[in-house]
Amino acid sequence: MTLRLFDTETRTLRDFTPLVPGHASVYLCGATVQGRPHIGHVRSGVAFDVLRRWLSAGGLDAAFIRNVTDIEDKILTKAAAAGRPWWEWAATHERAFDEAYRQLNVLPPSAEPRATGHITQMVDLMQRLIDRDHAYASAGNVYFDVLSYPEYGRLSGHRIDDVHQGESAGEGKRDPRDFTLWKAAKLGEPTWPSPWGPGRPGWHLECSAMAEFYLGAEFDIHCGGMDLVFPHHENEIAQSKAAGHGFARYWLHNGWVTMGGEKMSKSLGNVLSVPNVLERVRPVELRYYLGSAHYRSMLEYSDKALADAAQSYQRLEAFVRRVAERGGEVPVGKWTDAFAAALDEDLAVPKALAEVHHVVHEGNRALDAGVVESAREHASQVRAMLGILGIDPLDPHWNSGAGDISAATAALEVLVGAELERRQQARAAKDWATADAVRNRLQAAGIEVTDTPNGPEWALSTPVGKVN
Hints:
Layout: E1 4-7, E2 12-15, E3 23-28, H1 39-57, E4 61-66, H2 73-82, H3 86-103, H4 119-131, E5 135-138, E6 141-144, E7 179-184, E8 199-201, H5 203-215, E9 218-225, H6 229-242, E10 247-254, E11 257-259, E12 262-263, H7 274-277, H8 283-292, E13 299-300, H9 303-327, H10 337-344, H11 349-368, H12 372-388, H13 403-428, H14 432-444, E14 447-452, E15 455-460
Parallel strand pairs: 3-4, 3-9, 9-10, 11-13
Antiparallel strand pairs: 1-2, 5-6, 6-7, 7-8, 11-12, 14-15
Helix pairs in contact: 2-3, 4-5, 5-6, 8-9, 9-11, 9-12, 9-13, 10-11, 11-12, 13-14
């Protein structure tokens, strides 16, 4: 492979060389299952699903681990407020996340470990840190000694004097910059036994313990949202390397979904839940939208941006289905060199999608000219490229319950294409009355026509299948 990835730790594009030839090991920080997933939550799932698919397409056997945080302060607080057991609250929302990932065609991870299932590994890791003088026990709590690890702050760029862990003060903490590995038991909270007394794990501890258990002391890539760089990932590095691990060799972080320039979060009250958004567009169109920007960039949400993305995808989908209707089966072919070059450069999906749209444009020209076999070759390339992005319109995943919409999209493409061809002929003959009449008729039907140097393009003001 010639893949290059932007490593957060070194702030450089680095050639990706797997630790073990022929294999790739990836750990993604998954959900803290405190509530229903919104589209900001699942963006990382979509972004790094593309990474996984591209690693596999390059011939690597990819081990992909995505954890579930099922014990944490917010889970306990929200479960208590709802009058529900904490474990039921966590399990309910874990299922909601699983369903959101499934709907968006995010491949299931190789393993999806829960924090509560790995207390033994966490206790072992804490004991090693205490033995190496990087952690200490006090009043039933266990803390990591930040000053004992000289490279603390390398990932995030934080100066040690400016570190604030953002956690409540614990009894017996020597330095406010130290972070909690183990929380002593409190009345009414779940606990597990440990050499330092009953308690429960701190948030940062779980990922280090589970990454080691499933991927080894050193592995290839650690992924997550950019909001996790500090303190979560900084603390993961400190506790893992202080224990003697090589830990992650590359760090990848995705940007937020924002509204009004602010990160989408429950605390801001600007949440768009996945089920609510799927009332407006199909799952494949939501995936297209979430994956269309570069994974490191911010994705500013608006209803118009979502609708535009849906229409953009419909044009790709309609081309593939038109070819299938006219030329028979469209096999999955091979992606183009330009598409591969885009993904090899830090997963540049916008450039990759530009190449897909170019191939679709050429394929439509061939189809309109009656050169069906050439159009079929183009459609095969499109299927291959969209398959890497997880949005191949002929993937059986998308055809369960959405076939009626897909058929409507393809039929509309044929009808609008015929009208636009009629308009082009009228314009060539300087029959402006007929050309204007065609355009006005399409506009009345909710179809906007834009003349471009490459010919007319059209878009729906309301996505197919979503007319109210």
